[in-house]
Design brief:
alpha/beta; Rossmann fold; 6-stranded mixed β-sheet; 5-stranded parallel β-sheet; 19 helices; about 15% strand; binds pyridoxal-5'-phosphate
């Protein structure tokens, strides 16, 4: 299995190389040269299997010879052992034909754990084998950083530095980053906003001397390994509802398009997915694009579903690549136009996108109303992101079973949930002492060289 860039000019890589590299050297994103398919029989055989067994069957065709079967099974088992639910991704029935896929039983209570935990295991195994060590640096507005720290804590071949905006993440998110005690993980509070953190990370990757010196690596949402791990729960949920003998539709609360793109891969692999519905909050660049064919940047407005507050959706480039029949040159041109504000998708590619994805949007008021209604009518306390999802899903319901992805636990966003319902969402018992654990925070000015000095000092 070989991996190619969405912009057509970067070296072709193996799975291991693509995973360790992240962004391609031509600025593009890695995708498999061909998408492997599973037969109806192979999909049917997943019924009744454990999440781990399904994960092996789904991911194995993509990893080439990076790991032996026995090794890969061990990594999968370790990755999901820390989850707080035996099913890993349980499905809850909301209505006769509407289901909630709970993706928040991982160690940091958001779906990003599904990908980050297995990425942590795969990095450690691949690096240990080659005797290498890397420094992972990332910026976070909350969920990605905590998931990365939780996934890499205590591993030998990796140091992790997460930059977050000081005083601008929720208390639960901050504590999840600052309370792990292992000395290979570092939460760095930057005096600035999320864009400043992201700019600092980008500058470090562009500082080639520094990049070399500390062996910089990234695990942001464009990493192919992360997308791949998210394909698994489309299979596990669809099979439990009767696939491959029955079509299933999905609504996905969307920001950087990684989660919903994993649904597209599942469909290409042979899973009978009818509709894939992109749900956005009022930062609705994706919804507008699917309505009009024009991808145009506007500012970002903060919402109660902050993990979906985006201006540009990084993984959308992968969707464009397939809509343009894998024409990397055209994708590169559109991405160049994006620098000056936006681009218009050609008629054929726009049609292809519309055949693959539907979309909808929830306002702040609609989101709060959905949180309130779903606890009253269906007994489910939703986080604001999942509430955006169910609101959009309702508008698309037909005779096909609808699965909405619940991307975070309500206790991760207690203020918004309490404002909508007057219920304070409690943390699960296994992390009930989060507010008592002591924190380790390094605060730093919004200054590149100060940040680089901290990283150099800590890894030596
Ligand atoms: C990251 C995140 C999203 C958006 O997922 P994408 O893959 O970026 O589209 C939605 N909800 C929550 C809670 C998240 O953490």
């Amino acid at each position: 299995m070989r991996y190619i860039s969405t912009r057509g000019k970067a070296p072709v890589l193996t799975f291991e190389e693509a995973m360790l590299t992240g962004l391609a050297r031509d600025g593009g994103l890695y995708v498999p040269e061909t998408i492997p398919t599973l037969t109806q029989g192979q999909i049917a055989a997943m019924a009744g299997q454990s999440y781990e067994d399904i994960a092996f069957a789904v991911m194995r065709p993509f990893i080439g010879d990076t790991f032996t079967d026995a090794e890969f099974k061990t990594l999968i088992t370790k990755a999901y052992a820390g989850f707080g639910h035996a099913a890993r991704a349980p499905l809850v029935q909301l209505d006769s034909n509407h289901f909630l896929l709970e993706l928040f039983h991982g160690p940091t209570l958001a779906f990003k754990d599904f990908a980050m935990q297995i990425i942590g295991q795969m990095f450690e195994a691949a690096l240990t084998r080659s005797g290498k060590r890397v420094t992972i640096v990332g910026a976070t507005s909350g969920d990605t950083g905590s998931a990365a720290i939780e996934a890499f804590r205590g591993l030998d071949a990796v140091d992790v530095f997460i930059l977050y905006p000081h005083n601008r993440v929720s208390e639960v998110q901050r504590r999840q980053m600052t309370t792990p005690t292992e000395d290979n993980v570092h939460a760095i509070a930057v005096d600035g906003d999320f864009d400043d953190c992201q700019a600092a990370v980008k500058d470090m990757f562009n500082d080639f001397a520094f990049r070399e010196e500390v062996s910089l690596a990234g695990v942001n949402s464009i990493n192919w390994g992360r997308v791949l791990a998210q394909v698994v729960y489309y299979f596990s949920s669809a099979v439990s509802l009767g696939a491959p003998g029955r079509d299933i539709s999905y609504t996905v609360p969307t920001g950087n398009f990684g989660d919903i793109f994993a649904g597209y891969i599942a469909k290409q692999m042979g899973l009978p997915i009818k509709d894939l519905i992109v749900a956005t909050n009022r930062n609705d660049i994706l919804h507008r694009t699917l309505e009009t064919g024009a991808y145009t940047k506007e500012g970002v407005t903060p919402t109660i579903s902050p993990s979906m507050d985006i201006q540009v959706s990084s993984n959308f480039e992968r969707a464009l690549f397939y809509a343009y029949d894998q024409d990397g040159g055209t994708v590169a041109g559109q991405m160049e136009d994006l620098k000056s504000g936006g681009f218009t998708i050609s008629q054929g590619a726009y049609q292809a996108l519309k055949e693959t994805y539907k979309s909808g949007r929830a306002s702040e008021k609609e989101t709060a109303t959905a949180i309130k209604t779903y606890v009253a009518k269906h007994g489910e306390l939703l986080c604001p992101h999942s509430a955006v999802g169910v609101h959009v899903a309702e508008a698309h319901q037909g005779s096909t079973p609808m699965v909405t992805l619940a991307t975070a636990h309500p206790a991760k966003f207690p203020a918004a949930v309490e404002a909508a319902t007057n219920i304070h969402p409690p943390l699960p018992p296994r992390m009930a002492d989060l507010y008592e654990r002591s924190e380790r925070i390094t605060r730093v000015a919004n200054d590149l060289s100060a940040i680089q000095t901290i990283i150099r000092d800590r890894i030596n």
